[in-house]
Task: structure prediction
Amino acid sequence: MFSTSSTIGIIGLGYVGMPLAAALAGKGLSVTGYDIDTRRIERLQGGIDDTGELSAEETRHDTLRLTTDADALRGLDFIIVTVPTPISHANRPDLEPLFSACRTIAPRLHAGQVVIFESTVYPSATEADCVPLLEEGSGLKAYSDFRIGYSPERINPGDATGNLQNVVKVVAAQDEETLDAVQALYDTVVEAGTHRAASIAVAEAAKVLENTQRDVNIALMNEMALLCDKLGIRSHDVIETAATKWNFNRYTPGLVGGHCIGVDPYYLTSKAEEVGYKPELILAGRAINDSIPYHLTQKIVKLLAKADQPVRKARVGILGLSFKENVPDFRNSKAIAIIDELNDFAIEPLAHDPFMESLMARPPKAKFSAADMADMRDLNCCVWAVTHAAYKDLDGDAISAMIVTGGVFIDVKSQIDPMTLRADITYWSL
Result:
């Protein structure tokens, strides 16, 4: 079913789909990459990957075609869907991008084709929600006329060790024959190997569990950090001490945003509630992590007041705005959520991020001034929110130079030894 002459279409060319398309084409396979974003296609064709995952050379292969023409998907042997699955403002699954992809595929389906989904969903979504759309729009029957597979994406953006090639790929399908084909396809590019899941639903559940586990563990650390603050001790010191035990799993407090860890648990809780189960721990973890921008803002305001620094219209500098380090992705950024909270105190911060150009292409509603590092001076408060590699040379002296006498430094991820700061600066870390 799969061979080196198989033709492959990939729908959605973001940080998941484009690296996959490039990797497959790099092995000599014929790949058609489709996306509805004309600018994205044009930039990729020009060798520019705005996600920062691929070099210009990696975006160009003789066997790779990039297009916004959905009819280019006709007649291919495999279709792989890698579109985003966000949540609504009410924290409910928003499957419209996935459903739209299904509606694009359906009239172009043909007998014998294999459709593989990579998008993160709740257990059963692929077969209960996506397959009917494919059948309705194509007039074909799933499992007999065309085949279904699932292989959840596991890429860690901004991390060269957590890319497509280096992480075990979970594969699942409707039957053993289809699973063999899906596994063979991914085995061509995944050096870490593949794992055959017992079913599509098992693979779906495993993916949301992976990110939910991380979310809950970080929530525990965030709650511990808030408690440590009340107790007058540093969570950093507590974690360093606890980590001396061999079976302590080290997580650190921080801002949990983005399109995976802060989103995927809601896919699991939504399905849990649908089947009559109340997922108390998962929702509690989500509530804690979502509350951290509020708690940090309250701490900033209180420390400014205690240090006899102005609060209203204080000069606050924020270092890092993306949802995590070293990525030009600002979706669900909790650093931006802090700015939104600060705006309630008539504070419009200065903000620096090495990927600011990407953010300002679609600026958020939160009010701030984009700044160069040279502008980070005379600050009443400096907040180091995101540990980009671009900040690796920052030390106590550099931070001290940014802050006025008697000012405040908020070190969200405990990057700076407080003893290296100027003595008049108030230091606080999460």
The CA atoms of residues 118 and 152 lie 4 Å apart.
